[in-house]
Design brief:
The protein has a single domain, classed as Protocatechuate 4,5-dioxygenase, Chain B, CATH 3.40.830.10. The chain contains eleven helices and eleven strands. The chain has helices at 16-28, 48-60, 102-110, 117-121, 124-127, 130-136, 152-165, 186-202, 205-213, 221-233, 248-251; strands at residues 2-3, 38-43, 68-73, 83-85, 90-93, 96-99, 141-147, 172-177, 182-184, 238-246, 257-266. Strands 2, 3, 4, 7, 8, 9, 10 and 11 form an eight-stranded mixed sheet that branches. A three-stranded mixed sheet has the order 1-5-6, with helices on one face.
Length: 273
């Protein structure tokens, strides 16, 4: 079973050559260099015209030798109970098929997580990450998890399950897919987003909860907190900001913007070979 693209031609180019050129430009033009210590990323999931440059900076910062990418993403169009693990063989984009790391997904399914097919059919938050993964690492395998439960307890549990599922893989990268604040003025967006960014940089998952309770916004709060727990389990001690911008950079409209953030956690390395 291969999941077909749902937002090609809307969120990103539908033609293979155009898509590869755009993604490669975002990555190579970011000015960022690969960091071998990076274990996880936060990357936005809007249309590429708005957030592609931020996503490109995120992926450019990751190690060159990644073999598997686990994408943690929030559902937008269908409610997910707990977390839904994509139980298929591949994720297709105009660039071709990204194969699924079945050892990871089968381990997660055996651990009690389910596959809720309806949630994956039209969801963009994971799909828009895949072309960046395909361009950055030829032949890389993926695992896609849509996280519906964003509670601290569930995020910690899911992080442990992801860490346990990758014991026999090579270099692994975890990507939390998230945009930040939605539809505020640029001034308000900057304040709200800075709360979430500083909380992430602290490395303390509880501070992400506190920042959200105080007015910060992130549609992928659950995936980000799961990533932070995973990073701690892998010995990471660095949590940092790569890039932040808003939709105003593309649209010119600063009255109602969406915030985009790229972040990293590092020092832990991926799963041991």
């Amino acid at each position: 079973m291969v999941r077909r693209p749902a937002v090609a031609g809307m969120f990103y180019p539908a033609r293979r050559d155009d898509l590869e050129r755009v993604v490669r430009t975002f990555i190579e033009g970011s000015g960022m260099s690969p960091d071998d210590s990076v274990t996880g990323l936060v990357s936005p999931h809007a249309g590429y015209v708005y957030s592609g440059a931020v996503a490109g900076a995120a992926y450019a910062s990751a190690p060159d030798d990644v073999e598997t990418v686990v994408v943690l993403a929030p559902p937008h169009r269908f409610p997910v109970r707990g977390a839904s693990v994509f139980d298929g063989d591949g994720y297709a984009t105009p660039l071709g098929e990204a194969p699924v790391n079945r050892s990871i997904t089968e381990a997660l399914l055996k651990a009690g997580y389910s596959f809720q097919p309806e949630a994956h059919m039209s969801e963009h938050s994971a799909e828009v990450q895949v072309p960046f993964i395909q361009v950055r690492w030829s032949g890389v395998r993926i695992a896609v998890i849509l996280q519906g439960d964003s509670s601290p307890e569930f995020s910690r549990e899911l992080a442990g399950a992801v860490a346990g599922s990758c014991e026999h893989t090579g270099r692994l990268l975890v990507v939390a897919s998230s945009d930040l604040s939605h539809y505020h003025s640029l001034r308000v967006a900057r304040e709200k987003d800075r709360m979430m960014i500083e909380a992430f940089k602290s490395g303390d998952p509880s501070r992400m909860e506190d920042a959200a309770a105080a007015g910060g916004e992130a549609c992928g709060k659950g995936p980000i907190i799961t990533l932070m727990h995973y990073a701690h389990m892998k010995g990471c001690s660095r949590f940092g900001e790569i890039r932040w911008t808003t939709s105003a950079d593309a649209s010119g409209d600063s009255s109602s913007v969406v915030g985009y953030f790229a972040g990293y956690c590092g020092d832990g390395g991926g799963c041991p070979s």
